[in-house]
Design a protein that fits this description.
Blueprint: H1 13-22, E1 29-32, H2 34-40, E2 49-52, H3 56-65, E3 69-74, E4 79-84, E5 87-93, E6 95-100, E7 105-109, H4 113-118, E8 128-129, E9 135-136, H5 141-146, H6 156-162, H7 165-177, H8 184-192, H9 202-214, H10 218-227, H11 230-235, H12 241-254, H13 260-268, H14 272-282, H15 286-296, H16 306-316, H17 318-332, H18 336-348, H19 358-362, H20 370-385, H21 392-404
Parallel strand pairs: 2-5
Antiparallel strand pairs: 1-2, 1-8, 3-4, 4-5, 6-7, 8-9
Length: 406
């Protein structure tokens, strides 16, 4: 018998209380999906979802009777979020698909655990656990989990046609939990159904792609996507696969967490138009688009002279400077020590304060207005080029030079 006993999340008294409230009197509630999968893989459990025989109305009634908050987050699909001491637990009634169109499903609530398991995507995501931690496997998920094999439940093509996003989820889950090549039947079905990707919302595609790129071992899976023709379909361009591999290696060597937006930039952004195209195709956030635009301006050589590096640091800031150093290192395959040195320089450097003020020019007779702003800008450019000098003498020289160049 497989059990989750000893899993940290199972000892949470808030979870125990929710299960106590929802179980009994003819109803049964189990832990389902990612929490069970991750606990068995000794991967951190970030959220706990529950499946129940209780109708959503009954889930709400029981929660509120126990003094818990019940939020109807997805009533049409049987989901009520029960909140206890600030912790949310999604509780979904057992269900079967009545009708699907590749994006949305009409469901019928039921009480059959096997039917509920069979409507899910992958075998490793259809594992249940009872409140005491006993794992219940109705679709062969334990064997696939042991083999690190991401396999669709039942007929892969049918599962995909229920929701075409499952094509991208196949690659994302393989990058996160799988080993070796993709499941052959799953990949064949994905290729047959690839036209269905065009009907998905850009927001859903963005979420899956960024989650895929955030997987530590994303590069081999992205290469498989490219070989199967999906990368160009999703991104609208050819990806820099060697660059992505080098960036992932740099992140591991430097102890950095995978950065999905930086990985996207290395993979697919060379010029500003690439960033604009990705914003539209993936419905990127404004911050993500701005970051890609900044990276499109060019990489930074990791072995540049300290004075030039300091000038760029002052202009770009630490975060953008580090982004461009890593971009350059990934694109040009520079030695790790060079990238480490450039990043250490950025981390240890405190940006100086520009010592020249408007008052310095006003004292010399310059009037407020555009000329004053231009003089300050010229002085700052000269100050950066001179290596950020400080002191009254330096200020006087900068002000004098800026006025002479007016």
């Amino acid at each position: 018998m497989t059990t989750l006993q000893g899993a940290p999340f199972l000892a949470d008294p808030r979870l125990a209380r929710v299960l106590e409230v929802l179980n009994g009197a003819g109803e049964e509630t189990r832990i389902v999906g990612g929490a069970v999968r991750n606990a068995l893989l000794c991967v951190p459990v970030k959220e706990v979802d529950l499946a129940t025989t209780a109708h959503p109305d009954e889930t709400t009634r029981r929660a509120e009777a126990a003094g818990l908050k019940a939020v109807p987050t997805g009533i049409a699909h049987g989901t009520v979020t029960v909140v206890i001491d600030g912790a949310p637990f999604e509780v979904t009634t057992l269900r079967e698909d009545v009708e699907t169109d590749g994006r949305h499903a009409v469901v019928r609530f039921g009480r059959d655990w096997l039917h509920d398991a069979q409507r899910r995507d992958f075998t490793m995501n259809a594992l249940f656990a009872t409140p005491d931690g006993t794992v219940i496997d109705l679709v062969g998920g334990l064997a696939d989990l042991d083999a690190r094999k991401v396999r669709f439940i039942g007929d892969p093509e049918r599962r995909i046609r229920e929701d075409y996003l499952r094509i991208l989820r196949l690659f994302r889950f393989h990058a996160t939990y799988g080993t070796g090549p993709l499941d052959a039947a799953a990949l064949t079905a994905a290729i047959r159904c690839r036209a269905g990707l065009s009907g998905l919302s850009r927001e859903r595609v963005r979420a899956e792609m960024l989650k895929l790129l955030a997987a530590p071992d994303a590069p081999p899976t992205v290469e498989a996507m490219s070989d199967a023709g999906f990368l160009t379909r999703v991104l609208g361009g050819v990806g820099d696969l060697p660059g992505l591999r080098r960036l992932a290696g740099l992140e591991r060597a430097l102890g950095h967490a995978p950065d999905p937006v930086l990985r996207l930039a290395v993979l697919a952004v060379r010029v500003a138009e690439d960033a604009d195209r990705l914003r539209e195709r993936l419905r990127l956030t404004n911050d993500e688009h701005r970051r890609l635009l900044s990276l499109a301006e060019g990489a930074i050589a990791a072995d540049m002279a300290p004075r030039a590096a300091h000038a760029l640091l002052y202009r770009l800031g630490r975060t953008t400077f580090a982004d461009r150093v890593l971009l350059g290192a990934a694109r040009k395959d520079v030695p790790l020590r060079n990238a480490q040195a450039a990043l250490a320089l950025a981390e240890g450097w405190e940006p100086p304060v520009f010592p020249v003020r408007a008052a310095h020019f006003l004292e010399r007779g310059l009037k407020p207005g555009p000329d004053l702003g231009a003089a300050l800008a010229r002085a700052e450019v000269a100050w950066i080029a001179a290596g950020f000098p400080q002191g009254e003498e330096a200020v006087a020289e900068l002000v004098k030079g800026a006025m002479e160049r007016a």
